[in-house]
């Protein structure tokens, strides 16, 4: 399998190269040159497999020669046979005759990010060991990617991780899950600004020879193709349980960086009968506007009770625009250069038509989010987190507005455990969810992180000096 950049000028790479490179050298994002296709018979053949076996089947075409069959099987078995608290890994829960939840929060850090990052950690280990190399990971988080990535790579000999989060804009549980990890290869940086600022710094580091040269940088954000690949698996797993390929399925996906919902798009491209993908956002609704009117223009980020989705520049939207817009790398590079300058762009007709064939966008404000938490609790006895509630609110709106075929099951992705956002949950439904025992004594452990100003150079220079000096774990002053 060969991967190409959305901006056309970076070298094509194999899976191992893409997993280690993160962002392409031209600033673009890697995608498979062609989508692998599963026939209906192949999809039917997945029925009855355990999650880890599903993962092997769905992931295999993307991995190509980078892993042997035996290596891929061993990694998937180790990750999905052991690291999750539910035997089904991502169980389905029925809410009413039409609505389902796909629970993605049974991993070690209680959010959907674990599903991919537990795998990515093992892939890094395998590839770096094989090459005899080291990797400096730079990541940006609005809370969940950071904790899941740190959990996945803490203690690995060949990896050093620097995680930037926007100071004061993640939940306390999310922050503690990052800052109480004592492994010497983990560095937490709390920067001034929003998640978008942190993400912009990280992307800039990949293109900055002052740092990506002396250090070999790697990514754990969804700019890394391997993240999305692992997320495709649970679309297949859930759709097959609900009757695919003989029955269509629709999904509502709480969305920020457009990674999770893009994985649904990939599943559809591979032949899974997905009838509709609902892009559910909070009031930071650039994606809803883009899908409705072709207007992708970023304004400031409004803090909400769904902080992980307080995002206005959605990395993976570029992957969709590239794929729907005719895969023209030069045109995509020009379009993204315009956006970098003006923070606004208009989708082309091809991009709009391509996207609207499958996607619809709906946003939920704070009241609608609280109402969805209340409905899930009262109607189905389910305590859900506010991000999931944004997805559920959008799902219910989509049904009312007939944006989804009434005969297909509609699955909302439950992206985080309610205990990660227990203040917001308690305010909405009067129930304070308990933290599962697997997160341990989170509130008794000492926090360690470094506060930095919001300028790019402060973050870059911190990473550079600490990684080059090899002072593992020294970012622990605060
Ligand atoms: C709990 C939660 N839900 C939803 C999202 C949005 O997912 P994506 O960024 O893949 O669109 C995130 C963060 O990314 C998250 O942490
Ligand atoms: N909500 C995310 C933001 C980063 O998204 P990613 O999927 O690109 O890693 C977070 O929790 O950090």
TrEMBL record:
Its cofactor is pyridoxal 5'-phosphate. It catalyses: O-phospho-L-homoserine + H2O = L-threonine + phosphate. CDD domains: Thr-synth_2 (cd01560). Pfam families: THR4_C, Thr_synth_N. Keywords: Amino-acid biosynthesis, Lyase, Pyridoxal phosphate. Residues 2-80 form the Threonine synthase N-terminal domain. The modification N6-(pyridoxal phosphate)lysine is found at residue 113. One of its GO terms (biological process) is threonine biosynthetic process. One of its GO terms (molecular function) is threonine synthase activity. Its EC number is 4.2.3.1. Pathway: Amino-acid biosynthesis. It is an enzyme of class 4 (lyase). It comes from the Bacteria. Gene3D superfamilies: 3.40.50.1100, Threonine synthase, N-terminal domain. Belongs to the threonine synthase family. This is Threonine synthase. It comes from Erythrobacter litoralis.
């Amino acid at each position: 399998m060969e991967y190409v950049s959305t901006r056309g000028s970076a070298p094509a790479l194999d899976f191992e190269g893409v997993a280690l490179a993160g962002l392409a050298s031209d600033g673009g994002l890697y995608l498979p040159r062609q989508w692998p296709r599963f026939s209906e018979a192949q999809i039917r053949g997945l029925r009855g497999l355990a999650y880890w076996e599903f993962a092997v089947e769905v992931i295999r075409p993307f991995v190509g020669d980078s892993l042997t069959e035996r290596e891929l099987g061993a990694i998937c078995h180790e990750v999905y046979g052991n690291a999750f608290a539910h035997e089904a890994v991502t169980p389905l829960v029925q809410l009413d005759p039409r609505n389902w939840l796909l629970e993605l929060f049974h991993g070690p850090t209680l959010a959907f990010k674990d599903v991919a990052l537990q795998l990515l950690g093992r892939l890094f280990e395998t590839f770096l060991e094989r090459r005899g190399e080291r990797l400096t990971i730079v990541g940006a988080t609005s809370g969940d990617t950071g904790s899941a990535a740190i959990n996945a790579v803490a203690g690995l000999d060949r990896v050093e991780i620097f995680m930037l989060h926007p100071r004061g804009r993640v939940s306390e549980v999310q922050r503690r899950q990052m800052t109480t990890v004592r492994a010497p290869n983990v560095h937490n940086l709390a920067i001034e600004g929003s998640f978008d600022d942190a993400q912009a710094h990280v992307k800039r580091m990949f293109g900055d020879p002052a740092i990506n040269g002396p250090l070999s940088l790697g990514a754990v954000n969804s700019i890394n193709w391997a993240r999305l690949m692992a997320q495709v698996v649970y679309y297949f797993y859930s759709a097959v349980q609900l009757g695919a390929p003989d029955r269509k399925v629709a999904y509502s996906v709480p969305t920020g960086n457009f990674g999770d919902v893009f994985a649904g798009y990939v599943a559809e491209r591979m032949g899974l009968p997905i009838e509709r993908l609902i892009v559910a956002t909070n009031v930071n609704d650039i994606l809803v506007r883009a899908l409705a009117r072709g207007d992708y223009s970023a304004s400031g980020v409004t803090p909400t009770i769904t902080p992980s989705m307080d995002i206005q520049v959605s990395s993976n939207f570029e992957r969709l625009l590239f794929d729907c817009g005719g895969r023209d790398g030069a045109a995509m590079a020009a379009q993204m250069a315009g956006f970098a300058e003006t923070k606004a762009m208009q989708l082309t007709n091809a991009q709009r038509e391509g996207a609207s064939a499958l996607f619809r966008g709906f946003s939920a404000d704070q009241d609608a989010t609280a109402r969805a938490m209340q409905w899930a609790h009262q109607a189905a006895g389910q305590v859900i987190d506010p991000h999931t509630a944004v997805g559920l609110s959008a799902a219910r709106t989509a049904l009312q507005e007939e944006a989804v075929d009434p005969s297909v099951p509609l699955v909302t992705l439950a992206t985080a455990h309610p205990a990660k956002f227990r203040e917001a949950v308690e305010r909405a439904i009067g129930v304070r969810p308990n933290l599962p025992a697997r997160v341990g004594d989170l509130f008794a452990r000492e926090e360690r992180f470094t506060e930095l100003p919001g300028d790019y150079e402060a973050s870059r220079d911190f990473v550079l000096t600490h990684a080059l000096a090899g002072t593992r774990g020294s970012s622990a002053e605060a």
